[in-house]
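Morning!

This is the sequence you dropped in the shared folder:
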Amino acid sequence: MRRNQELIKLNLKLSVRNILSACLCLCLIGCSHNTTTETPVVTTTTTTTPVVEEPTKEVIPDTVLSFVAVGDNLIHGAVYYDAMNSDGTYDFKPMYQYMKPYIENADVSFINQETIIGGKAIGLSHYPLFNSPEELIEGISDTGFDLVNLASNHTLDKGEQAVLNALSFFDEYPNLVTAGANRSFEEQATLRTITRDDLTIGFMAYTAFTNGLYPPSGKEYLVNTIKRDSLIEEVSKARENCDILIVSMHFGTENSHEVNTYQKDYASLLNSLGVDVVIGTHPHVIQPMDLLESDSGHQTLVMYSLGNFLSAQIEVDQILEGMGMWTMRYNHETKELSFEDIAFMPLVDHYDHGYRNFRVYPLKDYTEELASLHTLEFTLEELIHKTKEIMGDKFEIILE
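The structure's back. Tokens below.
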């Protein structure tokens, strides 16, 4: 009986222990279960458009070039006799010394070489059929000139050989660009150019006269003569191949201060073709300057005649001469060209009594003492009055 009771107690203990174990397991299971509801994390992405900085556009400043032009380098016998050295060579440099600062300091400078430079080998000569010594080119170069017109009524004075000689002499001075005379049709068709500050300057030259002389048949290229149709074609083509175009025209009436209809007609034509500067030569006296404007608004500076430069002519009007001066502004954005500071500087072709000591002076630097030494009789006041009367007041006249 007692044994049975002990067994019952033992069973009861085991039952209680089992129940407690079961409860403990349930509590542990309940504690391990996460009943909290988590709030989902929402990530917001903001899309930003990147700022693209445009490259700064480089502003190219305007190019401004200074120009000067003088008239006829008319080398009479008296001039080259005065330039002769004791050894038979020639030195013209002193004759230009008072003009050199103006010529060499300009970006571009022009001279009309009126007489052909055939050289000593074929015989020097003067009026009416000229031939000048080759040393003259050294004087032109040393003075600082850049553009040299060779198309004049005296280009053919000594025939084909003189033209070929002249061009060969100029070949020795690559700083000098010539136009108006040629060795072939191919050379004639080639636009002469110089470059300044990345601008291409085209240079062309024509003459209306050859004094009744003609080149050999088939060699018409020796000198450029004014023929309207071909001039239009050639200038139009040249205009497409340069930034600035300068055309020298040997035209006008000798010893006349009046601009004739022929000059005006061709100046207007060249303006309509887009030429920027027309430099007239031949009359041997000064004529007015003008600034033409075409229907399209293109401007052309025209110097109808600057008179002589170095010569031995014997009239007061012929020794009163001039230098055209101007600047040109090129806008690289618009490709437009404009003129500034257009002026005329009167000059005096001086030579002492007996046709010695030839020099070219600015009138502003000329003195009454020098005038008293000149072969011709005049006063400074006479030259100043005549300059103002002829040139007018459209452009500045530099007298001081």
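Headline: The first helix runs from residue 2 to 32.

More detail when I'm at my desk.
O.
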